[in-house]
Each structure stands twice: as C-alpha cells, then as structure tokens.
Amino acid sequence: MSPEESAPASRPADTEDDIISRIEETILSRRAFLVGLGLGGVGGAGAVFGLTRAGEGFQSLATLAGGATLPATTRYYLPAVDGSDSGLVIPVTFEFTDGKGELFVNLNGIEVRHDLQLALREARETATRLTGASLTNTATHVTFESSGTGVLALRGKSWEAGLTVALVASLRQRSLSQETLITGIVDDEGALLPVGETETKARAARAADAQALIIPAGEPTEVAVQGLRIIRARSISEALDRIL
C-alpha cells in the first residue's frame, strides 16, 4: 500500500453549528437527565442549561424554568434646567436585578427639586402598562450622572417622559441612542403634558449632539434651534414610535 493510500483522510474543521448540533443531540438523548431537570433534581427548581452563540465564542446560559429574563440595562439622556436657568443633559442608567419590586436611586450629587421617587414610580407604572410586563420580582436600580464636582440643583418634572422611554426600552430589550431625546410630563392616560423652558432644553440637547427633541404637542412655545429637529407628540406612545 502506498503512503498516499495509508494516510488518513482529512476532514474540515468543525463549525459552530456542528458543535452546537452535537451538544443538542447529546443532551436530547439523555432523557433521564432532562427528566431530572424537569423535576428540579438538578440545580434547584427546574434549572435548564444550554449554550448559545455570542458575539465571540460561546456564552453559557442558566435560565430558571418559569422565570423571566431581566430587562436590559439602558442608558438614556434627559434634557434639564438647573437652578441658574442653564440647560444641560443628564445621563441616566437603568439596571435590574432579582428582587421584590424595589426601586433604588443613586443621584451622585444631584439635588432634584421635585419628588423624583414619585416620578420614577409613575414612569415605571406607565412603562409596565404599555409593555404588559411586570417588575414585581425585579429590583430597579437608577443612576443619575453629574458632570460637575459640586451639588447640581435641578427643578421640574419634565424628566418623566424620558424615564418612561428608558424603562420601555429596557422592558422591550431595545437599545437607545442620544440621537432623539424627549421632554414632557406623562399623565395617567399616557398623554404628554407641556413643560417649561423648552427652548433652553432644546439648546442643551443640541449641544449634546442630539438630532431631534420630542416635545408635547400642546407646548405653547415655538422652539427653533439650528441643527435640531423639533417633533411634537400628543402621547408617550406616539413618542415611543418615533424613538424605538
């Protein structure tokens, strides 16, 4: 037999699909293992383990049977006016952990001259109503960021629309950008109510590289800032259609 005939035939390297297929076949063939999982015999109350492709390589998953995926971490930007009537944009981040409906707020040296806790709770109620989701078993962690070193005093309740948008994006697992921002108060029916100092907020939004600012349709002030598109919306649902 010649060396060419005795050499083992080479085969192409396994692809990710090949590896995942073999793992799935192995797991599915072990019925006793799956029954044990279904009865909660492994990893607690029915823990199901698997593999999924991530951006690089593989990512392991451990999802509790009957449990829900936590909302996505979301970062958004809120046009605001400080105590000296200057406009600025405040970054806010929403993160989520297992919990019992708690709401934790980290202001990082920002003094807010209205009931921010109430505004956040109202935003959470609106977001869950719009998405049909529940945060009963989830703790919500909200972090506001200040660019200054001292205490930053802010006023008004116009953040409520932006907070609602960020929460809806988290619950829908959607990403947000700084391209389109919003200012406004959201009432119990989801309507956007007018707010003050809209042009100051618009200038701050443009300075932060926003391309558009959504304002309540009933806002009496005519707003015009070069390079910034002003969009009027009657409701938070209409605004969400523009942003997400």
Automatic annotation (TrEMBL):
Its EC number is 3.4.21.-. GO terms for cellular component: endomembrane system. Residues 92-223 form the Lon proteolytic domain. It is found in: Endomembrane system. It is a multi-pass membrane protein. Its main location: membrane. SUPFAM superfamilies: Ribosomal protein S5 domain 2-like (SSF54211). GO terms for molecular function: peptidase activity. One of its GO terms (biological process) is proteolysis. InterPro entries: Lon_proteolytic, Ribosomal_Su5_D2-typ_SF, Ribsml_uS5_D2-typ_fold_subgr, TAT_signal. Pfam families: Lon_C (PF05362). Gene3D superfamilies: 3.30.230.10. Keywords: Hydrolase, Protease. This is S16 family serine protease. It comes from Haloferax chudinovii.
